[in-house]
Design a protein that fits this description.
With 113 residues, this protein is of the alpha+beta class. It is built from 2 helices and 5 strands. The chain has a 5-stranded antiparallel sheet, with helices on one face. The longest helix has 17 residues. The protein starts with a helix and ends in a 9-residue tail after the last strand. Bound molecules: guanosine-5'-monophosphate and zinc ion (ZN).
Length: 113
């Protein structure tokens, strides 16, 4: 999707602070971190949101969770982190390319909202 911010990050058109990349997944630090560790993990294929996950594309979502476990271990937060995905503008989604927020490093109770 040519007008998608995260597709532009995947293509390199917009720079990002990458923490992990493979053939199907990219992870990079959020530009406005809400916690000491705030990483966004995204599929390289453009999936708009969690409500567009189907039998045809869910393998990449399973792989994303493997990657999340690896990143959490690499960053030393494997024993305490939160994964969030916002689906739809009313739920706070501002970038309409499926992404998972990996948050850690401070009291997660304070991040419930
Ligand atoms: P959402 O609100 O859609 O769940 O999350 C979108 C996230 O993308 C926000 O946390 C926001 O800070 C982050 N974000 C927006 N633009 C950029 C950008 O250009 N670079 C990076 N690294 N993160 C961004
Ligand atoms: Zn996209």
């Amino acid at each position: 999707m040519s007008d998608c911010l995260f597709c532009k990050i995947i293509s390199g058109e917009i720079p990002s602070d990458k923490v992990y990349e493979d053939d199907t997944v990219l992870a990079f630090r959020d530009i406005e971190p809400q916690a000491p560790v705030h990483v966004l993990v995204i599929p390289k294929v453009h999936i708009p949101a969690a409500n567009a996950v189907t039998a045809e594309n869910s393998a990449v979502v399973a792989h994303i969770f493997e990657v999340i476990a690896k990143i959490a271990a690499d960053l030393g937060v494997q024993d305490g982190f939160r994964v969030i995905t916002n689906c739809g503008a009313s739920a706070g989604q501002t970038v309409h390319h499926l992404h998972f927020h990996l948050l850690a490093g401070k009291d997660m109770q304070a991040l419930l909202a």
